[in-house]
Every structure is written in structure tokens, then in C-alpha cells.
């Protein structure tokens, strides 16, 4: 049992990890064909994972509705929205009909999904503004520089700010294209090195949390 639950998954992860790490550096037709086949299998497995995730989601919210826990009405809305959208998608077969007219599924996407996404991002803007207000207080020289740069960028990205301070547009572009780009590259390099290190830990069995039992 320990072989099936622990050793076999670790062996599969190690073999496939090393195999496809080497595949990237082998420009051979057989190597490319193997990658194409495995990519198709990943899509199939992803479909099964999607079904598993939806089943788990429905089970959790069904329990909330049955017990009438706090917020169970939102679970009912979730059920209605998901089932209604799936039904309309199967019935409409896409967002546009053959003649280019908007279908019922397209109407749901354009007039319900898109406004809801806009609402979520607008709510997120308030949290970002609140966090920026707390973070950008000039308590030190570094914070003062950050506050000044943030004000310049915000003024240069809106027409009113560029109208009031014409030079703010050029300064904003310089900050974004020069200073911000260098910092972004450093962050991406750090993230890439972290991803490589985590990949090696998974391949060689050091990181085992994906097995569901921590590192034991």
C-alpha cells in the first residue's frame, strides 16, 4: 500500500520531470511528437480534474443549503447561475449564431458575466486604494520616494493630471519603462529561480505536499 501511495507517485514524478526537462533541449521530431501527445493527455486529465472540482463545489454548497448555514442563499444563486449558464451554452452552441446574431449564451456572457467582472474589479480598486493609502505614508525617505513616484504615475496616466501637469506624462512613461521595468525583471528572475528550485525539489522527492500528507 505504501508503494502505491508514496513510492510509485514519487517515481512517476521523478521520471517524467527529468524526461521532459531533457525533452526541452532535444530538437528531434520524436521529442516534439512526444510533447504533443503528452499535452493532449494533460488536456484530458484537466477535463477530469474540472469535473472533480465542479462536483466538489456542488457538494460543499449542497451541504450549506441543506444545513441553512450563514450565506446559504448565495449557494442557491451559485447553483442557479451555473446550471442556467450550462443549459444556455448547450442550447445555444456558442456566443454567436450562424448569421452572427447574439445567442442566449452570448447575452448571458455580454450582459451578466462582463458587468459582474467589472464590479469585482471596481471593488478591488477600493481595497487597492486603501492599501496604497496605508503603505505610501512618507514615514521615511524610501517611502517618500515611493509616494512621489506613485503620484507622478497616477497623474500622468489620466487626462486631467496630464492637462494640469504636462510633464507628468513623460515622467510617468519614463518611470514605467525604465525604473519599473528593471524591478520587474529582477522579480521575474527571482520567481523563475524559485520555480526551478521547487521543480527540482518535486522531481527528487524533497517536496511531497502534493501527495496529501506533507513531507512524511
TrEMBL record:
<feature type="transmembrane region" description="Helical">
    <location>
        <begin position="111"/>
        <end position="133"/>
    </location>
</feature>
<keyword id="KW-0472">Membrane</keyword>
<feature type="transmembrane region" description="Helical">
    <location>
        <begin position="72"/>
        <end position="91"/>
    </location>
</feature>
<feature type="transmembrane region" description="Helical">
    <location>
        <begin position="145"/>
        <end position="165"/>
    </location>
</feature>
<protein>
    <submittedName>
        <fullName>Uncharacterized protein</fullName>
    </submittedName>
</protein>
<keyword id="KW-0812">Transmembrane</keyword>
<feature type="transmembrane region" description="Helical">
    <location>
        <begin position="41"/>
        <end position="60"/>
    </location>
</feature>
<keyword id="KW-1133">Transmembrane helix</keyword>
<feature type="transmembrane region" description="Helical">
    <location>
        <begin position="7"/>
        <end position="26"/>
    </location>
</feature>
<feature type="transmembrane region" description="Helical">
    <location>
        <begin position="185"/>
        <end position="206"/>
    </location>
</feature>
